[in-house]
Amino acid sequence: MAATAPQPADRTPAERHSAVTEMPDELRADVRMLGELLGRVIAEDGGPDLLADVERLRKAVIAARRHEISVDEVAAMVAGWSIDRSVQIARSFTCYFHLVNLAEEHFRIRTLRSRDANEAMLPESLAQAVSELKHDLKPDELTRLISELEFRPVLTAHPTEARRRAIVTAIQRISVQLAEYNTPERGAHEREEAHRRLMEEIDLLWRTAQLRHTKLDPLDEVRTAMSAFDETLFRTVPRIYRSLDAALAEGTGTREPQARAFIRYGSWIGGDRDGNPNVTARVTREAVLIQAEHVLTALENAATRIGRTLTASALYGPPSGELRAALATASDDHPELISELGMRSPREPHRQWLLFLAARIAATRRRDLDLAYRSPDELLRDLRICQSSLVSTGATRQAYGEIQHLIWQVETFGFHLAELEVRQHSQVHAQALAEIKAGTPSERTEEVLATIRMIGWIQERFGVTACSRYVVSFTRSADDIAAVYELAEHALGGRAPLLDVVPLFESGEDLANSADVLTGMLLVPGVQRRIAANGRRLEVMLGYSDSAKELGPAAATLKLYDAQAELAAWARANDVRLTLFHGRGGALGRGGGPANRAVLAQAPGSVAGRFKVTEQGEVIFARYGHPAIALRHIEQVTNAVLLASTPSVEARTADAAARYRRLAERVASASESAYRSLTEAPGFPEWFGLVSPLEEIGSLRLGSRPARRGLGAPKSLDDLRAIPWVFSWAQTRVNLPGWYGLGSGLLSAANTTTPAEDPAPQDETGTAAQVEPGTAEASPVEGPGLDELRRAYREWPLFASLLDNAEMSLAKTDRQIASRYLALGGRQDFADQVLAEYDLTRKLVLAITGHSRLLESRRVLSLAVQLRDPYVDALSHLQLRALSALRAEEHLPDDERERLETLLLLSVNGVAAGLQNTG
């Protein structure tokens, strides 16, 4: 492979040295200690020569970043090692990234706690939002907004978590020991023991296989998601409500709360069968039972804990008549249980009552129908009996303290934990109806009917809120919605379950036609019945992943915004309370990025106090893996939902959108043309398969869902799911789905002053010109429309979010490494086209944002990227070695191919850990 010419770098050697010195002392100490412990483990297990080779590669990639040696020299070093040695080195760097990620998480937690201790009001908090709202809204307007507030995160099993569950739990054990080691009040012996345990756990992490050897099944995915509930969500939710209540009025915990439970979790895990034949009616049934087991166990434990501590004596405050009557009734129905509780807690009626409720929750879990609750509403009624009684005795702190937390938890999670949502493709429904009418139902059609019957069973067991939403992928018309109601009648006749059928609009054409489809939906009898019963509520899902894969990131972002604005206007005209369900992924190429900024960038009127969004793959653990981080994430999103719903913010956003609409149309049109000229070119899918580890990523067994639609290599992007599309580009260090086409769109707008003028190249006296590959730094960018682009960036949240997300994606792109991947496909024209668009996009993003380098205004993120880049380079070189060999040799011996694939997949795992995103 020919040497690659040095390219202008965003991070010079001096800047990287500065990043190292700027690293906070606590973070530097943790990274150093964990790295040293890992080094000792590597040397003990693999010998000092292995550690020496790891160090050689580490120093070499840093030297290459400083231009002290060439990238070809690094590649030659890697090529000189045996495959087995390369595998060991890939393991080393992957483990290192797991530990660095952990150290950064601990530093973030310490920072959050420090800011919470030192700042009266955290920015982007609930307290800050309520403070602003009190100045912006009248008291009754604020009360109405709070009463209508909804945040609905939906956990999905989309396969974007590259780590095995065993690796995640090993990291969690290391996390516990690191926290122990860093706790200030620990004595010397305790710190020494924590240090020893750290070494033990890091040794186990090293010895744990990084790759899955068996494919996940859907119920494995359900159980994995439950760990986020067990460890974080159940305990975090009441803290959120308490924070909001404290912000609304003084005296939280001593008065009736003003904050209501506004969070409702949903889940597709075990319910999403679109393209996943492994999700069946039986799986859906087991999924909801697993969820119920976890939430009922949590509620039982909480009620038991509170009950045991609720030792308020009747001597100092007699219980209410209602509580005495309730205990008497319970004694009549369950004399032995109440007698035992009375003996254990004499003259402590509130304690007896809470422990009785705990026993009833346990019976609900066991399905002991004599004692079990029939619904969460019954439990809430009993909890409020206790709460009211405590208030009557003057024990308001006990009434509105832990008991209120338990009430909030029941209101949030019920007995089902998260609403299980079903998703299926519209074509499956159409085919099922055709087969039923012909009298020849296939096995798949029988499964569709079984799924609807299972929804009915879930509703009978856990209530309608446990499972009523049915999402229809690729909705093209109201007939696709009507089909589900018709199938429900075929499945159960007059006993059909209550269904809220949700259209999912994914393609550019479908987004443009979405309002017309909704108009047709209002004529569907099933829809009419539901909106009449639920206060004219309707939900619509917008797909970010497939629209971005089809149109490119810039055009998709802008068309999604237009669709939101049109749908919001449609809802107002039709007196419908519309909830937009945002199908966002974790990666920037799938609608990812900071969630709170995404909310503030929504079209005016489209939020209205309600925000529903998917939480996918590695995002679940990144956002909900630790209570402090989960608390901050939910506060930031809720802060944005509240502020985005105010008239002043809506007015400013609407004004900016109207002012820059023509500019947005120019950017969208030109960016889509540039994107399609690449992705729809003959031979592009095959080339993409050669330059990326697309085929091999399927071997990672990330989830139960197939990586593509159909069999064989993809012939077009339609055959490929969005996750492997984004994941594969991240591995090549190109990150193309996060920015490609944006540069061309910005160039068109920069070169245009009015819609009537055609963009044209200009001379050096003041306009932009096309940029050849590798020449992005040759001249400054100017143009008659450039000032308008800069104003749009300052004034329009959507445009700012678009450019900021692209800037993050560009910062994680490495042109020099990327060019080596692109060369593997044997199509220099494609490689040049990609690199030219990268140069153009980077140049224009910097010119519009006013930054001298990427992420200049995001110091913490920039610091992290600078420090990680060389180590990701090491894994990229190892991956390139494996990928080059696999692509070059068609007839490799089976054992050599297997070892190369192992090296490739280990490096994929490591790069994902280093970049901290997959799909």
From TrEMBL:
Keyword Cell membrane applies: no
Keyword NADP in record: no
Keyword line: Carbon dioxide fixation, Lyase, Magnesium
Enzyme class: lyase
The protein's required cofactors: Mg(2+)
Domain of life: Bacteria
Catalytic activity: oxaloacetate + phosphate = phosphoenolpyruvate + hydrogencarbonate
Active-site residue numbers: H158, K549
Annotated EC: 4.1.1.31
Region (Disordered): 1-20, 751-784
Pfam families: PEPcase (PF00311)
Quaternary structure (record): Homotetramer.
Assigned protein family: Belongs to the PEPCase type 1 family.
HAMAP family with a match to the protein in the record: PEPcase_type1
Function: Forms oxaloacetate, a four-carbon dicarboxylic acid source for the tricarboxylic acid cycle.
Protein name per the record: Phosphoenolpyruvate carboxylase
Species of the source: Sphaerisporangium corydalis
Chain's gene name: ppc
